[in-house]
Design goal:
about 300 residues; mainly alpha; about 85% helix; globular
């Protein structure tokens, strides 16, 4: 990965090439989208707004030509540029000028909020819209004899009511992951260990905790998928990230081997979503208790 970051920083053409090729690869391997966006983030973080924007434009032109040649239309490349490169470019600018990972992480949630509001303004019945999009999935469940007709309709109907919040949260979380990869690359090239130290002190403002608590209480009282549930989904990735930051700080404080962190991430994948809920709960609790400060007070090395 460091070799790829070095190639990106060789020049504008190399950065645009990586962004464009990875964007096209994401049509077959979705995770390649993170590499594409991270290339734009790295250039923006290191060289500023103009250079990052130019890389995005050149990558958009290149991927548009490739998409036209392969698919007969440049639309997928244009959509990719607007949907992922632009938000990553904006968040990278915020981090470059604000120099605060915590502030940037919280500010990125506004992207999710904008998507949430935009979907509700554009679509009169979001649940009906998502149910129509999920109809092929429902039909495949029935044809594969995984669920019967009634069960598949109930499952898709329930999922459709949550999809607006899930989409908004997953979108800005993906933007954050791309930004983190770009920041990690930057640190690996110019400030080894810098991103780890920066991430381990990531801390949300209490206002984010209050918003999360209020949304959860409102959802608990109503018991239905709606604005309160969507806000819970929107702020949950923030608590998850703070929980992961606390785990990394604890691992550093107690000088645990890297295998412990590998096991932690394996648990997040294998015990999904229960492990994520526990770690998010840890992050939420840390807003009020500041576990890392207590470690520092006891002489631990929490950073």
């Amino acid at each position: 990965m460091q070799a790829l970051a070095s190639f990106v920083m060789r020049g504008r053409s190399q950065a645009a090439l990586v962004a464009a090729v990875a964007a096209l690869l994401s049509l077959m391997v979705p995770l390649a989208a993170l590499i594409s966006s991270a290339a734009v983030a790295l250039v923006t973080l290191r060289q500023g707004a103009r250079e990052g924007l130019l890389v995005g434009i050149f990558a958009g032109l290149a991927s548009g030509l490739l998409a036209f040649a392969a698919l007969g239309s440049p639309a997928p490349a244009v959509g990719f540029a607007l949907a992922l490169w632009l938000p990553v470019w904006l968040t990278a600018l915020g981090l470059r000028h604000g120099r605060s990972l915590s502030l940037t992480v919280q500010g990125s949630a506004l992207i999710g909020l904008a998507i949430l509001v935009g979907l509700h303004l554009k679509i009169a019945e979001p649940a009906v819209y998502w149910a129509e999009l999920l109809e092929p999935v429902r039909a495949s469940l029935v044809s594969g004899e995984i669920l019967d007709e009634a069960g598949s309709q109930a499952l898709v109907g329930q999922l459709a009511r949550w999809m607006t919040g899930i989409f908004a949260a997953s979108f800005y979380f993906q933007v954050l992951l791309a930004l983190f990869i770009g920041r990690w690359w930057q640190a690996a090239l110019y400030n080894p260990g810098g991103f780890g130290a920066e991430f381990r002190v990531l801390r949300l403002h209490p206002a984010a905790g209050l918003l999360g608590a209020a949304s959860f209480v409102a959802f608990y009282l109503t018991g239905e998928a709606g604005w309160s549930a969507e806000l819970v989904l929107l702020v949950s990735p923030l608590f998850l990230l703070q929980g992961i930051a606390v785990v990394h700080a604890l691992a550093t404080s107690f000088r645990l081997q890297r295998a412990w962190l590998i096991g932690f991430y394996a648990l997040l994948v294998l015990a999904m979503p229960h492990a994520e809920l526990l770690v998010a709960g840890l992050g939420f609790a840390d807003i009020w208790t500041d576990i890392r400060a207590k470690l520092r007070g006891r002489g631990g090395k929490a950073e």
